[in-house]
Write a structure and sequence with these properties.
Blueprint lengths: L6 H5 L9 E4 L4 H13 L7 E5 L3 E2 L2 E2 L8 H14 L10 E7 L2 E8 L8 E3 L8 E3 L5 H9 L9 H11 L6 E4 L6 E4 L8 H5 L14 H12 L6 H7 L5 H14 L3 E3 L12 E3 L1 H6 L3
Length: 289
């Protein structure tokens, strides 16, 4: 059965989310069996996923040109694949398709979400091994963390969280799970300099004693409120109807950054196309002035 997808688009993440694609440079039957079982269980109903053999992975993305597989190796892999998949209970088999990509042979395993869940497989392929029901990671949380720039790809999330919390002088995050890895919980503790009462306090001054905000001061506050969640330069400029990009950059955005009312989400790459701006603790305090 041919794959119902454009191979180039698949390998470049244009039609399928990266969280639904696993890349492997070589063949590891035990690890492959567990991945197939995880995709079959499809905990979040994302229609399974793809396991691509012959392509190395780095930071959650494929490395090109692909390493590739030898033709006789692909034949051997498909035979062994048929054997190990018989160990999945209930019965489950992915769709395997050898393809040519950038003058190399690779093997794509299309693992649809199974119809008789849950599926389980042995912990290992050795005799007398126990069975393990595999549950795949929560992709929705993964996407949310990427939007917050707290993670970038597979195997980078926890190191990125630790680095960003340290850079912000926040307490170390707390990671919790159980022995069976049935759940994973992360607690991000509040920054010591952040005083919640500053945001909740209501000024007690009478209306007569409260000076009216100037249009410029009010505009600053409106931008800060808009950037409570990270926004791109273009989103801010369009939302407040600034027509001239250079004027907005020099007279609006740059002073907010200089006064530390906004900060960049990617401070070490100021010109990154993924750059966004978010309110700082100082900016939050200014909202109550």
């Amino acid at each position: 059965m041919a794959l119902p997808i454009n191979i180039n688009e698949l390998l470049n993440g244009k039609t399928v989310e990266w969280e639904r694609i696993e890349f492997r440079k070589g063949w590891n039957p035990e690890r492959t069996l567990k991945t197939i079982t995880a995709f079959a269980n499809d905990l979040n109903n994302w229609s399974g996923g793809y396991l691509i053999l012959g392509v190395e992975e780095k930071d959650g993305k494929p490395v090109f040109p692909p390493a590739g597989l030898e033709l006789n190796k692909i034949d051997a892999i498909q035979k062994e694949l048929n054997q190990i998949c018989r160990k999945i209970i209930p019965n489950y088999f992915p769709i395997a398709e050898p393809v040519d990509f950038q003058d190399k042979k690779i093997l794509i395993l299309w693992c649809l979400g199974g119809s008789v869940r849950p599926y389980k497989c042995p912990d290992s392929l050795s005799k007398n091994s126990q069975f393990d029901v595999r549950k795949y990671r929560n992709r929705r949380i993964g996407e949310f963390l990427k939007e917050l720039h707290l993670t970038e790809g597979r195997q980078t999330g926890i190191p990125t969280i630790l680095k960003e919390m340290k850079r912000n002088h926040s307490p170390k995050p707390i990671f919790e799970t159980d022995d069976e890895r049935l759940y994973f919980k992360t607690s991000l503790l509040i920054q010591p300099e952040f005083n919640k009462s500053d945001l909740e306090a209501t000024p007690q001054a009478t209306p007569q004693a409260t000076p009216q905000a100037t249009p410029q001061a009010q505009r600053v506050k409106d931008i800060l409120i808009f950037c409570i969640t990270a926004k791109s330069r273009e989103e801010i400029q369009n939302h407040f109807n600034f027509k001239d990009r250079e004027y907005f950059r020099i007279n609006i955005l740059k002073p907010l950054l200089k006064d530390k009312l906004l900060k960049m989400t990617i401070p070490d790459k100021s010109s990154s196309p993924k750059q966004k701006y978010v309110i700082t603790i100082k900016g939050k305090r200014k909202l109550n002035e």
